[in-house]
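Example 4.3 (complexes with small molecules)
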Amino acid sequence: MSPREQLCEYGRRAVDLGLVIGTSGNLSVREGDLVAVTPSGVALDRLTPEMCPVVDVAGHLVEGDLQPSSETPMHLAVYGTTDARAIVHTHSVFGTVVATTMTELPPVHYNALMLGGVVKVAEYATYGTPELAANVRAALEGKRAALMANHGGVTIGGTLEEAFELTRLLEWLCEVYVRGLGVGKPTVLTDEQLAAVVERALNPPEFPRL
Ligand SMILES: [Zn+2]
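Answer. The structure with zinc ion bound is encoded below.
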C-alpha cells in the first residue's frame, strides 16, 4: 500500500474503533523528505488517496488539492527530532480524560513499556500552533507516545501500522487507569518491577524439547 492508501485504511479503522469522531484526528506517513498527511476538514473514514496532501519536511505543499491537517506542524516537528516514520493523533475518549485531569499516565501495566513507561501530558497550547508542536515534541522525548493537555493523544512508529497499534494501546492503558480509579487506588509499577519486565523480555526462558 502506498502511504496515501495507508492513510485511508487506518483512517477508516480509527473511525470504526471510535478513536476519532467527525473530522478530528490526523495521521501521517514519512517517506524520505516527503510526508503524506490526512487533509483538513475531511472525516477520516471518507478519505481517498488523492485527497491526502503530500508536504515536504519543511512544510511546503508538494501534491494535493486540499489543505494538510491543521496539526501538520506538530507532525513535522516530531519527524524533525525522532526516527518516526508514521504518526497517529486522535481525540480518543480515555486518552482525553487523562489529558484533561492529570499531568502523566503512570505505568500500572507492564505494556506501558511499549510506549516508554510513564506517558507525559504535553502542556496545553492552541491546536495547530508551533507552541503545541514544541510541547508535544518535548513530551515525546525518549517515548513512543504522549498525551496533549485538554486535547488528545499522539503516538509514533516505524510504520503506520505500528503507530496505530500504539494508539490503541495508549487508549487501553488510559481506560484501565481511569476505570481503576473508579474502583480503588491503582497500584503503580515500580522502576524495579519494570526493569524486571525488560530483563524477562530480553531473556525469554526456552522450553526444553522432549
Ligand atoms: Zn487534535
